[in-house]
Amino acid sequence: MLDIHFIRENVDLIKAGAAKKHIDVDIDALIKIDDERKLVRQELDAKKAEQNRRSNEIQILKDKEREKVIEQMQHLKAGMAEAEERLKAVMVEWQKLMLTVPNIPDMSVPDGDSDADNLEVKKVGDPAAFPFATKDHVELMTNLGMADFERGAKVAGFRGYFLKGDGALLSYALWQFISNHFVKKGGFVPMIAPSLVRRESFMGTGYLPQSEEDLYKTQDGEYLAGTAEVAGMGYHMNEVLDAKQFPIKYFAFSPCFRREAGAHGKDTKGLVRVHEFFKFEQVVLCEASHEASVKYHEELTANAEEMLQILKIPYHVVINCGGDIGLGQVKKYDIEGWMPSEGKYRETHSSSYFHDFQTRRLNIRYRDENGDMKFAHSLNNTALATPRFLAVIVENYQQADGTIKVPDALAPYVGKNTLGRAG
């Protein structure tokens, strides 16, 4: 959420940012309802001031004069009640419109309609030239008993899957590898976060109300999160933080759920797009400084890249265009690993910063060195998402006999060098 004073002073800038993000928002309607909000608020404040003045008069008046003022105050209270009801109605509309205003994208964000318009900024590693006909991860993992998609669909429905045997071992290995890597790196507090989360945290992080169709909702009114970012940010909701702690960094793990409502017909087979998955997320809070946000954004992105480099997965980094970043993001990178079966890169990690968009909604503040209260800045980045990343590893490390070579960095965690046979 942006500050209303900032919106009023930068109407053209806000409209341009919304247009760049291809987000439909009526800023003029917001300004109009904000004018009404201010007028009703002024009216109510004037009535309260009058009430206080009359209350002081009553204490020194007697008999008929006192009764007359009491009668006038009853009319005043009725007018105040009516003004308060009008203010409540106006505030509902005001808050509804405020939640639709997108953050302003950074100047470096390219124009574009979709992920097809994202701009490559870095490429690392060359895709392997296999001397045999490659298979996709579905065929490889099915043949090796690493996954069962038929029974997954039978038990869990569309996009259901079982990981078993070496498939489960590979997933465990990745979790242990990434956990140890970040613990050794230092600076991050490990966290296991809930995925069943109340509405407030989804509103605060910007997933509601815009993305409600992609969320699973319980009969009790909670939602299942698609990222530990939601709970990780909600952790400090309505708190005043100690600026000396900055940057506050969490390495958060959680089960994740997404309906994939907007992905009809996309990646209908395999592990790239599923309803239930597991993620490790980097979540950062820092001082309200653009320079600090840029610094940590690059740092988080480098952390994710480092994992692909250690595992020797060819990848590239793209800066997401205006049409491919969310409501609250100022800037976003996608890291995409090479998928041999498709002959292209596929997203494995996303890295974003938000300035104070999320923290205003969540009311996460701190006092700066001058004692002024400010909203912190927030960032997040995917450290690892499984089972999607298993597909990337399996396809890049497939061998001519249909087995899978274990990446050297994972071998100690898997306990063998080849998936599909002993040893």
Annotation field: number of helices = 13
First-last Cα distance: 54 Å
Helix content: 40-55%
Enumerate the strands of the largest sheet in spatial order, edge to edge or round the barrel.
1-11-12-13-16-10-9-4
Q: β content, as a range?
A: 15-25%
Give the radius of gyration: 27 Å
The biggest sheet, with number of strands, parallel, antiparallel or mixed sense and barrel status, is:
8 strands, mixed
Tell me which oligomeric state these chains represent.
single chain
The count of β-strands is: 18
Shape type: elongated
> What are the low-pLDDT stretches, counting only 5+ consecutive residues below 50?
none
Structural class: alpha+beta
Mean pLDDT: 93
Primary descriptors:
423 residues; alpha+beta; eight-stranded mixed beta sheet; 21% strand
What does this structure look like?
- The protein has 423 residues and is an alpha+beta fold.
- It has 13 helices and 18 strands.
- The strands form 5 sheets. Strands 1-11-12-13-16-10-9-4 form an 8-stranded mixed sheet.
- α3 (27-58) packs antiparallel against α4 (63-98).
- It is elongated.
Produce a short descriptive summary.
The protein is of the alpha+beta class.
Summarize the helices and strands and which ones pair or pack.
Blueprint: H1 4-9, H2 11-20, H3 27-58, H4 63-98, E1 119-124, H5 137-143, E2 147-148, H6 149-156, E3 162-163, H7 166-185, E4 189-192, E5 196-197, H8 199-205, E6 216-217, E7 223-224, H9 229-234, E8 239-241, E9 248-257, E10 276-286, H10 290-310, E11 315-319, E12 331-339, E13 344-353, H11 357-362, E14 364-367, E15 373-375, E16 377-386, H12 388-396, E17 404-405, H13 411-414, E18 418-419
Parallel strand pairs: 4-9, 8-14
Antiparallel strand pairs: 1-11, 2-3, 5-7, 6-7, 9-10, 10-16, 11-12, 12-13, 13-16, 14-15, 17-18
Helix pairs in contact: 3-4, 5-12
